[in-house]
Design goal:
Length: 312
C-alpha cells in the first residue's frame, strides 16, 4: 500500500512540473525567425503593419499557452481521478481481506466450541464408565465373614511357611565346639618338683596353667571327632605334640604321648594326658568320640590316671 501511494504522488508532482514549463511549437519558431529577418532587412523605422503582425503573433502565443494550460489541467484531473480509482481499488481489496480474516476467525471459534463440546461429552462418558466400574467393584467385594476367613487362612499359611523356613535355617546353622589344653596340676610345688629340671620352665609349664586357651572350632562334617578338633587346634596354635595311631598301641585308638614337650611319666609313673567332654570322661579314645554342637573339650595333664582332675 505504501509503495502504491508513493508512485501516485511522484506522478502528480511530475505533471505539475511539466505544466509550469512553456512549450514552443514549430510554427511559432518559424514565425519568430521571419520576424527577426524582416526587422534586420529594413533600415527604415518600424512599420505599423509589422506592429499588427506582432500583436497577432502575441495573441496567437497567448492562445496557444492558454490551450496548453487547459490541456495540462485536464491531464492533471485525469491523473487525480486515476489515483482516486486506484486508492478505491486498494481500499476495497483491504476491506475484502479484513472480511475474509473476520470470517476465518469466526470459523476457528466455532471449531473450538465444537472441540470443547466433544471433550465435555467424552469426560461425561468416562465418568459414567468409572461410576459403573465402582458399582461393579462394590457388588464384587466379599462379605465381612468371607474376608475374615480368608485372612485366617492366609495367616495359617504364613505361619506354616515361617516354620518351614525356620527349620531350614536350623538345618543350615553352623555347629561349633570349644577346646582348651591346661597344666593346672603341675602348678603345685610338689607336682612341679617331680618334673625333670629341664622341664621346670615357664615355656613348658606356664604360670597361668594354660597352653591353649578356650578356642572355638566349627564342626565341618558329621565325622569330626575329638581327635580331629584337637589336631586342628594344636597345629593352628603351633604347639608341639606327639601321638600314636590307633593301630600302634594297646588301646586301639589314637593315644597322645606328649604336648608342649610334656610326656607321659614325666611327673610320675601314672602321669600323662587325658581329655574330657563337658566335664566328663567320654569312656572312649579321642578318635572314637563324635563331637556335637556345643561340646567343650578339655585336655589336662594328670599325675594319677585322672583321679586328681576328677575323671575317675
Amino acid at each position: 500500500m505504501k509503495k502504491v501511494h508513493f508512485y501516485i504522488l511522484t506522478l502528480i508532482i511530475a505533471i505539475f512540473c511539466l505544466a509550469g514549463c512553456k512549450i514552443q511549437t514549430v510554427e511559432q519558431y518559424n514565425n519568430q525567425n521571419a520576424d527577426e529577418k524582416s526587422v534586420d532587412d529594413s533600415s527604415e523605422k518600424v512599420i505599423p503593419v509589422n506592429d499588427k503582425k506582432k500583436q497577432d503573433h502575441q495573441t496567437n502565443k497567448k492562445n496557444t499557452e492558454s490551450d496548453q494550460q487547459v490541456d495540462q489541467k485536464t491531464n492533471s484531473k485525469e491523473t487525480v481521478k486515476k489515483s482516486d480509482e486506484s486508492n478505491q481499488v486498494v481500499t476495497k481489496s483491504t476491506n475484502n481481506q479484513e472480511k475474509e480474516l473476520h470470517t476465518a476467525n469466526k470459523e476457528i471459534r466455532t471449531s473450538n466450541k465444537d472441540t470443547n463440546q466433544e471433550k465435555k461429552t467424552t469426560n461425561l462418558t468416562l465418568k459414567e464408565q468409572n461410576s459403573s466400574k465402582n458399582i461393579s467393584k462394590k457388588t464384587e467385594t466379599p462379605s465381612k465373614k468371607e474376608t475374615v476367613a480368608s485372612k485366617k487362612a492366609n495367616s495359617a499359611k504364613s505361619i506354616y511357611r515361617s516354620n518351614s523356613t525356620d527349620n531350614k535355617i536350623v538345618k543350615e546353622k553352623k555347629k561349633y565346639v570349644t577346646i582348651s589344653v591346661r597344666v593346672d596340676t603341675l602348678l603345685k610345688e610338689e607336682n612341679y618338683a617331680k618334673l625333670e629340671k629341664p622341664l621346670q620352665n615357664e615355656k613348658y609349664v606356664p604360670k597361668s596353667g594354660t597352653i591353649i586357651a578356650t578356642s572355638k572350632y566349627e564342626i565341618r562334617s558329621d565325622n569330626d571327632s575329638a581327635w580331629s578338633i584337637t589336631l586342628r587346634a594344636l597345629k593352628e596354635h603351633h604347639v608341639q605334640f606327639e601321638y600314636d595311631g590307633a593301630g600302634a598301641n594297646k588301646y586301639g585308638s589314637v593315644y597322645i604321648q606328649g604336648i608342649n614337650h610334656l610326656y607321659e611319666k614325666n611327673a610320675g609313673p601314672l602321669s600323662g594326658w587325658m581329655y574330657s567332654v563337658n566335664g566328663k570322661n567320654p569312656g572312649v579314645g579321642c578318635d572314637g568320640y563324635k563331637v556335637k554342637d556345643g561340646d567343650q573339650i578339655v585336655w589336662q595333664y594328670s599325675l594319677n590316671e585322672g583321679k586328681d582332675i576328677g575323671l575317675k
